[in-house]
Protein backbone atom coordinates (compact mmCIF):
# COMPACT_ATOMS: atom_id res chain seq x y z
CA UNK A 1 0.00 0.00 0.00
CA UNK A 2 1.47 3.39 -0.93
CA UNK A 3 1.87 6.34 1.39
CA UNK A 4 -0.45 8.14 -0.97
CA UNK A 5 -3.23 5.73 -0.22
CA UNK A 6 -2.70 6.11 3.51
CA UNK A 7 -2.85 9.85 3.02
CA UNK A 8 -6.11 9.47 1.10
CA UNK A 9 -7.50 7.44 3.99
CA UNK A 10 -6.50 10.08 6.48
CA UNK A 11 -8.30 12.75 4.51
CA UNK A 12 -11.30 10.48 4.18
CA UNK A 13 -11.51 10.08 7.95
CA UNK A 14 -11.32 13.84 8.38
CA UNK A 15 -14.10 14.43 5.86
CA UNK A 16 -16.24 11.77 7.47
CA UNK A 17 -15.79 13.31 10.92
CA UNK A 18 -16.69 16.72 9.61
CA UNK A 19 -19.66 15.68 7.56
CA UNK A 20 -21.69 17.31 6.25
CA UNK A 21 -18.75 19.05 4.62
CA UNK A 22 -20.69 22.10 3.55
CA UNK A 23 -19.47 21.71 0.00
CA UNK A 24 -22.42 22.03 -2.38
CA UNK A 25 -23.74 18.65 -3.47
CA UNK A 26 -24.91 18.31 -7.04
CA UNK A 27 -23.76 21.83 -7.72
CA UNK A 28 -24.29 23.57 -11.00
CA UNK A 29 -23.02 21.91 -14.11
CA UNK A 30 -20.67 24.19 -15.97
CA UNK A 31 -20.57 24.87 -19.66
CA UNK A 32 -20.83 21.79 -21.83
CA UNK A 33 -17.59 20.62 -23.36
CA UNK A 34 -16.79 22.43 -26.55
CA UNK A 35 -18.54 25.66 -25.56
CA UNK A 36 -16.64 28.30 -23.59
CA UNK A 37 -18.24 30.53 -20.95
CA UNK A 38 -18.29 33.34 -23.48
CA UNK A 39 -20.56 31.15 -25.60
CA UNK A 40 -17.93 30.63 -28.30
CA UNK A 41 -16.87 27.19 -29.44
CA UNK A 42 -13.62 26.14 -27.78
CA UNK A 43 -11.86 24.00 -30.34
CA UNK A 44 -9.36 22.79 -27.72
CA UNK A 45 -12.10 20.73 -26.11
CA UNK A 46 -12.71 17.45 -27.87
CA UNK A 47 -16.35 16.51 -28.26
CA UNK A 48 -16.07 13.10 -29.91
CA UNK A 49 -14.22 9.96 -28.81
CA UNK A 50 -11.48 10.19 -31.46
CA UNK A 51 -10.64 13.79 -30.55
CA UNK A 52 -10.75 12.91 -26.85
CA UNK A 53 -8.24 10.10 -27.41
CA UNK A 54 -5.90 12.38 -29.33
CA UNK A 55 -6.02 14.98 -26.54
CA UNK A 56 -5.73 12.56 -23.62
CA UNK A 57 -3.19 10.01 -24.88
CA UNK A 58 -0.14 12.23 -24.29
CA UNK A 59 -1.13 12.46 -20.61
CA UNK A 60 -1.90 8.79 -19.95
CA UNK A 61 1.26 7.99 -17.96
CA UNK A 62 0.23 10.42 -15.21
CA UNK A 63 -3.52 10.54 -15.75
CA UNK A 64 -6.33 9.77 -13.36
CA UNK A 65 -8.88 7.61 -15.17
CA UNK A 66 -12.10 7.42 -13.19
CA UNK A 67 -15.30 5.69 -14.09
CA UNK A 68 -18.71 4.78 -12.76
CA UNK A 69 -19.61 1.05 -12.80
CA UNK A 70 -23.33 0.26 -13.34
CA UNK A 71 -24.59 1.57 -16.66
CA UNK A 72 -21.09 2.67 -17.68
CA UNK A 73 -18.83 -0.42 -17.62
CA UNK A 74 -21.76 -2.79 -17.02
CA UNK A 75 -25.13 -2.58 -18.82
CA UNK A 76 -27.96 -1.65 -16.42
CA UNK A 77 -29.87 -4.63 -15.03
CA UNK A 78 -33.29 -4.87 -13.40
CA UNK A 79 -31.62 -6.66 -10.48
CA UNK A 80 -28.35 -4.91 -9.55
CA UNK A 81 -26.89 -8.25 -8.44
CA UNK A 82 -26.88 -9.27 -12.13
CA UNK A 83 -24.58 -6.38 -13.07
CA UNK A 84 -21.40 -7.49 -14.87
CA UNK A 85 -18.68 -5.50 -16.62
CA UNK A 86 -18.62 -6.01 -20.38
CA UNK A 87 -15.84 -8.21 -21.81
CA UNK A 88 -12.54 -6.42 -22.09
CA UNK A 89 -13.07 -4.19 -19.03
CA UNK A 90 -10.42 -5.77 -16.81
CA UNK A 91 -7.95 -5.88 -19.69
CA UNK A 92 -8.53 -2.20 -20.51
CA UNK A 93 -8.21 -1.02 -16.90
CA UNK A 94 -5.12 -3.18 -16.36
CA UNK A 95 -3.52 -1.83 -19.54
CA UNK A 96 -4.13 1.72 -18.31
CA UNK A 97 -2.42 1.00 -14.99
CA UNK A 98 0.51 -0.56 -16.89
CA UNK A 99 0.83 2.69 -18.86
CA UNK A 100 1.16 4.47 -15.50
CA UNK A 101 -2.36 5.83 -15.10
CA UNK A 102 -4.16 5.78 -11.77
CA UNK A 103 -7.45 3.94 -12.29
CA UNK A 104 -10.41 4.43 -9.97
CA UNK A 105 -14.00 3.23 -10.05
CA UNK A 106 -16.31 5.74 -8.38
CA UNK A 107 -19.66 4.18 -7.61
CA UNK A 108 -22.81 4.70 -5.59
CA UNK A 109 -22.78 1.06 -4.59
CA UNK A 110 -20.72 -0.33 -1.77
CA UNK A 111 -17.13 -0.91 -2.82
CA UNK A 112 -16.91 -4.62 -1.95
CA UNK A 113 -19.96 -5.45 -4.07
CA UNK A 114 -18.58 -3.65 -7.11
CA UNK A 115 -15.15 -5.26 -6.67
CA UNK A 116 -16.88 -8.67 -6.53
CA UNK A 117 -19.29 -8.14 -9.44
CA UNK A 118 -16.66 -6.50 -11.63
CA UNK A 119 -13.76 -8.79 -10.71
CA UNK A 120 -11.90 -5.52 -10.11
CA UNK A 121 -9.37 -7.05 -7.71
CA UNK A 122 -7.63 -8.34 -10.85
CA UNK A 123 -6.62 -4.76 -11.76
CA UNK A 124 -3.31 -3.88 -10.03
CA UNK A 125 -3.51 -0.74 -7.90
CA UNK A 126 -7.13 0.09 -8.73
CA UNK A 127 -8.99 2.24 -6.20
CA UNK A 128 -12.73 1.72 -5.74
CA UNK A 129 -14.55 4.63 -4.10
CA UNK A 130 -17.86 3.19 -2.89
CA UNK A 131 -21.10 4.80 -1.70
CA UNK A 132 -20.18 8.09 -3.41
CA UNK A 133 -16.77 8.16 -1.76
CA UNK A 134 -17.92 7.31 1.77
CA UNK A 135 -15.71 4.21 1.61
CA UNK A 136 -12.54 3.28 -0.25
CA UNK A 137 -11.23 -0.10 -1.35
CA UNK A 138 -7.63 -0.57 -2.51
CA UNK A 139 -5.34 -3.59 -2.67
CA UNK A 140 -7.82 -5.82 -0.86
CA UNK A 141 -8.36 -3.41 2.01
CA UNK A 142 -11.59 -1.57 2.68
CA UNK A 143 -11.79 1.63 4.63
CA UNK A 144 -15.39 2.17 5.65
CA UNK A 145 -17.13 3.81 8.59
CA UNK A 146 -19.30 2.00 11.12
CA UNK A 147 -22.98 1.89 10.26
CA UNK A 148 -24.42 5.25 11.40
CA UNK A 149 -27.38 5.23 13.79
CA UNK A 150 -29.45 7.11 11.19
CA UNK A 151 -29.15 4.14 8.82
CA UNK A 152 -30.35 1.78 11.55
CA UNK A 153 -33.36 4.05 12.13
CA UNK A 154 -34.09 4.18 8.41
CA UNK A 155 -33.91 0.38 8.14
CA UNK A 156 -36.43 0.12 10.97
CA UNK A 157 -38.92 2.64 9.63
CA UNK A 158 -38.77 2.38 5.82
CA UNK A 159 -40.77 -0.89 5.51
CA UNK A 160 -43.73 0.62 7.41
CA UNK A 161 -43.59 3.77 5.28
CA UNK A 162 -43.76 1.68 2.09
CA UNK A 163 -46.57 -0.46 3.54
CA UNK A 164 -48.60 2.64 4.37
CA UNK A 165 -48.61 3.99 0.77
CA UNK A 166 -49.06 1.06 -0.15
CA UNK A 167 -46.12 0.62 -2.52
CA UNK A 168 -46.27 -1.48 -5.69
CA UNK A 169 -45.43 -5.06 -4.60
CA UNK A 170 -42.49 -5.09 -7.02
CA UNK A 171 -40.83 -2.21 -5.15
CA UNK A 172 -37.94 -3.42 -2.99
CA UNK A 173 -35.19 -1.94 -0.85
CA UNK A 174 -31.47 -2.49 -1.46
CA UNK A 175 -29.49 -2.13 1.77
CA UNK A 176 -26.03 -0.76 0.97
CA UNK A 177 -25.33 -0.40 4.72
CA UNK A 178 -24.33 3.27 4.35
CA UNK A 179 -27.37 4.11 2.22
CA UNK A 180 -30.68 2.52 1.25
CA UNK A 181 -32.06 2.42 -2.27
CA UNK A 182 -35.74 1.95 -3.10
CA UNK A 183 -35.91 0.14 -6.44
CA UNK A 184 -38.92 0.32 -8.79
CA UNK A 185 -37.33 -1.16 -11.92
CA UNK A 186 -39.17 -4.48 -11.42
CA UNK A 187 -42.62 -2.81 -11.37
CA UNK A 188 -44.84 -2.96 -14.45
CA UNK A 189 -44.81 0.83 -14.50
CA UNK A 190 -41.58 1.93 -12.74
CA UNK A 191 -42.33 5.65 -13.18
CA UNK A 192 -45.77 5.37 -11.53
CA UNK A 193 -44.42 3.08 -8.81
CA UNK A 194 -41.70 5.62 -7.94
CA UNK A 195 -44.10 8.56 -8.10
CA UNK A 196 -46.41 6.87 -5.57
CA UNK A 197 -43.70 6.49 -2.93
CA UNK A 198 -41.62 9.60 -3.58
CA UNK A 199 -43.34 11.89 -1.07
CA UNK A 200 -43.50 9.63 2.01
CA UNK A 201 -40.03 8.18 1.40
CA UNK A 202 -38.57 11.66 0.92
CA UNK A 203 -40.26 12.90 4.09
CA UNK A 204 -38.87 9.99 6.13
CA UNK A 205 -35.39 10.38 4.64
CA UNK A 206 -35.29 14.10 5.35
CA UNK A 207 -36.59 13.60 8.90
CA UNK A 208 -33.66 11.25 9.58
CA UNK A 209 -31.11 13.57 7.94
CA UNK A 210 -30.61 11.80 4.61
CA UNK A 211 -30.29 13.30 1.17
CA UNK A 212 -32.89 11.86 -1.20
CA UNK A 213 -31.62 11.40 -4.75
CA UNK A 214 -33.53 10.04 -7.74
CA UNK A 215 -31.73 7.72 -10.14
CA UNK A 216 -32.65 5.50 -13.06
CA UNK A 217 -35.77 3.72 -11.66
CA UNK A 218 -34.64 4.25 -8.08
CA UNK A 219 -34.86 6.63 -5.14
CA UNK A 220 -31.73 6.65 -3.01
CA UNK A 221 -31.43 7.82 0.60
CA UNK A 222 -27.83 8.86 1.18
CA UNK A 223 -25.82 10.13 4.11
CA UNK A 224 -25.16 13.84 3.60
CA UNK A 225 -21.83 15.22 2.51
CA UNK A 226 -20.79 12.61 -0.06
CA UNK A 227 -21.02 12.72 -3.81
CA UNK A 228 -18.85 11.74 -6.77
CA UNK A 229 -17.35 15.24 -7.03
CA UNK A 230 -15.90 14.87 -3.54
CA UNK A 231 -14.61 11.40 -4.38
CA UNK A 232 -12.77 12.74 -7.45
CA UNK A 233 -11.51 15.73 -5.48
CA UNK A 234 -9.85 13.40 -2.96
CA UNK A 235 -8.35 11.20 -5.68
CA UNK A 236 -6.88 14.27 -7.40
CA UNK A 237 -5.49 15.63 -4.12
CA UNK A 238 -3.98 12.25 -3.25
CA UNK A 239 -1.96 11.94 -6.43
CA UNK A 240 -2.10 15.14 -8.53
CA UNK A 241 -2.61 13.95 -12.11
CA UNK A 242 -1.58 15.48 -15.42
CA UNK A 243 -5.11 14.90 -16.76
CA UNK A 244 -8.41 13.47 -15.56
CA UNK A 245 -11.10 11.43 -17.32
CA UNK A 246 -14.49 10.49 -15.87
CA UNK A 247 -17.11 8.22 -17.43
CA UNK A 248 -20.69 7.99 -16.14
CA UNK A 249 -24.31 7.55 -17.16
CA UNK A 250 -26.77 8.69 -14.48
CA UNK A 251 -27.91 11.58 -12.32
CA UNK A 252 -25.45 10.53 -9.60
CA UNK A 253 -22.65 11.29 -12.07
CA UNK A 254 -23.62 14.94 -12.56
CA UNK A 255 -21.48 16.15 -9.62
CA UNK A 256 -18.52 14.27 -11.17
CA UNK A 257 -19.13 15.95 -14.51
CA UNK A 258 -19.25 19.30 -12.70
CA UNK A 259 -15.96 18.47 -10.94
CA UNK A 260 -14.39 17.83 -14.37
CA UNK A 261 -15.45 21.34 -15.42
CA UNK A 262 -13.95 22.79 -12.21
CA UNK A 263 -10.66 20.95 -12.82
CA UNK A 264 -10.54 22.38 -16.33
CA UNK A 265 -11.13 25.86 -14.97
CA UNK A 266 -8.13 25.28 -12.67
CA UNK A 267 -6.03 24.39 -15.72
CA UNK A 268 -6.04 20.59 -15.37
CA UNK A 269 -6.82 18.87 -18.68
CA UNK A 270 -10.04 17.02 -17.85
CA UNK A 271 -12.89 15.45 -19.80
CA UNK A 272 -16.13 13.66 -19.09
CA UNK A 273 -17.85 10.93 -21.08
CA UNK A 274 -21.53 9.94 -20.87
CA UNK A 275 -22.93 6.55 -21.81
CA UNK A 276 -26.17 7.16 -23.69
CA UNK A 277 -27.73 3.70 -23.29
CA UNK A 278 -29.01 4.52 -19.80
CA UNK A 279 -31.17 7.24 -21.40
CA UNK A 280 -30.58 9.91 -18.76
CA UNK A 281 -30.71 13.11 -20.81
CA UNK A 282 -29.19 15.28 -18.06
CA UNK A 283 -26.06 13.12 -18.03
CA UNK A 284 -25.82 13.02 -21.81
CA UNK A 285 -26.16 16.82 -21.98
CA UNK A 286 -23.64 17.53 -19.22
CA UNK A 287 -20.74 15.39 -20.50
CA UNK A 288 -18.11 16.54 -22.99
CA UNK A 289 -18.22 13.37 -25.08
CA UNK A 290 -20.92 10.75 -25.62
CA UNK A 291 -20.60 7.03 -26.35
CA UNK A 292 -23.56 4.76 -27.10
CA UNK A 293 -23.13 1.98 -24.54
CA UNK A 294 -20.84 0.18 -22.08
CA UNK A 295 -19.06 -1.68 -24.88
CA UNK A 296 -18.17 1.63 -26.50
CA UNK A 297 -17.03 3.04 -23.12
CA UNK A 298 -14.67 0.09 -22.64
CA UNK A 299 -13.51 0.34 -26.26
CA UNK A 300 -12.58 3.96 -25.56
CA UNK A 301 -10.57 2.93 -22.47
CA UNK A 302 -8.91 0.13 -24.47
CA UNK A 303 -7.92 2.58 -27.18
CA UNK A 304 -6.66 5.07 -24.60
CA UNK A 305 -4.27 2.44 -23.23
CA UNK A 306 -2.78 1.81 -26.66
CA UNK A 307 0.26 3.69 -28.00
MG1 LIG B 1 -24.18 4.38 -13.37
From TrEMBL:
A biological process term (GO) from this entry: trehalose biosynthetic process
One Pfam family recorded for the sequence: Trehalose_PPase
Pathway: Glycan biosynthesis; trehalose biosynthesis
EC number: 3.1.3.12
Cofactor: Mg(2+)
UniProt family annotation: Belongs to the trehalose phosphatase family.
Protein's recorded name: Trehalose 6-phosphate phosphatase
Species this protein is from: Jatrophihabitans endophyticus
Amino acid sequence: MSDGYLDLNWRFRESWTDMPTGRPVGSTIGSRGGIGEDGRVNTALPDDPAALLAALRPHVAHALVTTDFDGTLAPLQVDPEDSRAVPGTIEALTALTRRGATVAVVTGRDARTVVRLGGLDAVPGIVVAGVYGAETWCAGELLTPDTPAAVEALRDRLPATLADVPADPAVWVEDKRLSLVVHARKADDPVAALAAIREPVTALGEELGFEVHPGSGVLELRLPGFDKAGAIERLVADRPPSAVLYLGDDLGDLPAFAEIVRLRERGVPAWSVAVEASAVPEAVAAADVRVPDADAAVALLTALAQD
